[in-house]
Design brief:
Layout (H helix, E strand, L loop, with lengths): L45 E4 L4 E8 L2 E4 L2 E14 L4 E13 L2 E3 L2 E9 L4 E3 L2 E3 L2 E3 L4 E3 L2 E3 L18
């Protein structure tokens, strides 16, 4: 296998390189092949509280939060809130988007969407624009589906007449 040489009758490939950029007779105009990079949004900061974390009181976060511990009180997040599989929340919860993999006992409000994953539990009333309840999730309470805010009609612009 290795180290054996056999003549299979295959001919070696002859490779001739193409013209080099210096010898190219028709160079492209300057800027013709420049790539414009679109600015990449900076990664969203994410805070995390592990499964050994226990909180009594109120938690407020402007950034995404992954919470996998125990909390009694209230929990408010301006971005995405994920309750991990070990998370046990006995609090009212408010977030832009909520993903539940653990348990919540309390009222929940999410302006965009709530996703209750397989094995998760919510006992309490829910207010949201959209909800996903996977098979195997447990939910007990009322659901209030919010309508997206209707676009405000622009007010007519008053034009002063010249006399």
């Amino acid at each position: 296998m290795w180290g054996k040489t056999t003549d299979s009758g295959a001919k070696p490939l002859n490779f001739t390189p193409g013209p080099t950029p210096a010898s190219n007779p028709d160079p492209a105009p300057a800027g013709a092949f420049e790539r414009k990079q679109t600015p990449v949004a900076p990664p969203r900061p994410t805070a995390s509280m592990g499964k050994e974390t226990k909180v009594k009181g109120d938690v407020y976060s402007e950034e995404e939060l992954y919470f996998d511990g125990d909390i009694e009180g209230s929990l408010e997040v301006r971005g995405v809130l994920t309750i991990g599989p070990n998370g046990k929340v006995k609090a009212n919860v408010k977030a832009k988007e909520l993903v539940v993999k653990g348990s919540i006992h309390g009222d929940v409000e999410a302006s965009d969407r709530i996703s209750i994953m397989n094995g998760a539990t919510i006992v309490g009333d829910v207010k949201t624009a959209g909800i996903v309840i996977e098979d195997g999730a447990y939910f007990k309470g009322g659901i209030d589906i919010l309508r997206p805010e209707t676009a405000k009609k622009p007010e007519p612009i008053a034009v002063a007449a010249k006399a």
